[in-house]
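Fold this sequence, please.
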Amino acid sequence: MPKLSPLNVIPLLPGTNCGQCGEQTCMSFAVKLLDHLIELKECKPLFSEKKYAKKLKKLKELVTPPIISIKIGTGEKQISIGGEEVLYRHELTYYSPTAIFVDVNDEDLDDLIQRTEFVKNYDWIRLGDRINLQGIAVRSLSGNPDTFAQAVKKVLSITDLPIILCTLDPKIMEAGLKVTKNKNPLMYTATKENWKEMAKLALEYDVPITVYSTDLDELKSLCVSLENAGINKIVLDPGTIPGEGHIGETYSRHIILKKSAIEKGDKSIGYPTIGIPAAVWMDQDIKNLSLGERVTLSYEEAKLGTILISHATNLLIFHTAENWFMLAIGVVRQNIYADPRINPAVEPGLYEINNPTPESPLFLTTNYTMTYFVVKGDLEESRIPSWLLVINTEGIGVECAVAGGDLNADAIKEHIEKYKVNEKVKHHGIIIPGLAARLQGELEDSANRVVIVGPRDCGGIPLLLEKRWNLEKIEKLWQEMQS
């Protein structure tokens, strides 16, 4: 699917620049619409005035991505899955990060409570972004509608995160749907055996539904049947089968679905996909596994999850609920969903670390996200009160910024003046990264500061300060520079 231009969208908008969408012009609305920063429904005249009906229809067809977006849950915690426009991330970007759910079952209430609390409270910050989990998948092991309903109630009493109801039995599913009424859960799952009953429930409760089959022709047929029944909120599960020889098949089925929808324009399967890395634990006597066996299974589960994230499987259900596991999965997801069009960067400026005084050391780095947060983290952990001057290199790291000329003495001098460093820092020293050592002499002349070349690795900062940070000597050197 070729990348749309705002010029493709403008002729289909009212063109009145009415501002009801919150934007000053229809052009700015078109730009944000294509960047997924605003929804089509925000253009009020398109939906309220009949004269725009034809334009609205054409515009919907134009901007609806090959893989549609499906919403799960409600309120602030609601998530959107799908919405892909390209098969490969580098062609444009992926917009809706893979949703990560953790499974619980209705037979072990204590375990359900513990795991739900884990998901609810899981929250890490990495490179300025939060890594957290999106929801709970409640599985029916009991085979009892009342037991399942009670388990779902317990989850809802703990968290308002989105929920997936997992059962093949329509009666049990209905028990769960009654409890989650107006919560917009995802039904998992419809098959060739139960799809008619499940379709009735999906229509009655107006919720999204998953269809499952490892036979892609059968999966497509199920989608068409649901569409004919009036259902268009569908999630595809082509099967997740772990083990040697099966992982490649699992991956291939997911890719075939994506290719068919995005490259071939097959709208009948243009829906988000779901993977179940938790299948690694299937048929295991979990309570009696040794620690080594648990770690091995978790490792296999992580490999499977990583493979599925790599090509934007839209939702994954995991069993392992431990910090080390979810942090690894979260980092992979964060990397895959970083926008390849934009260098990851933070705002330039003068940052205060650990409540610095005017005599505290002044450090310098670039605004590349990885550089900034690593330096900031090392300074915070070492409890060193510091000033950190962040130079705008448009998200380029130190070594490349120096080589390309983005980090140079003149730019540093400009930042010192712009952010009024001399008003807040009363000494004349500055510590630059070891990878920027070549700037030392030029920077001393340009910024009139004593430049100390720091370590190549910011982990060496405490030792550097211990050996070389001496304000009396720095000021003496500065006085000598003035003569």
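Residues 291-310 form the longest helix (20 residues). The chain is about 40% helix and 15% strand.
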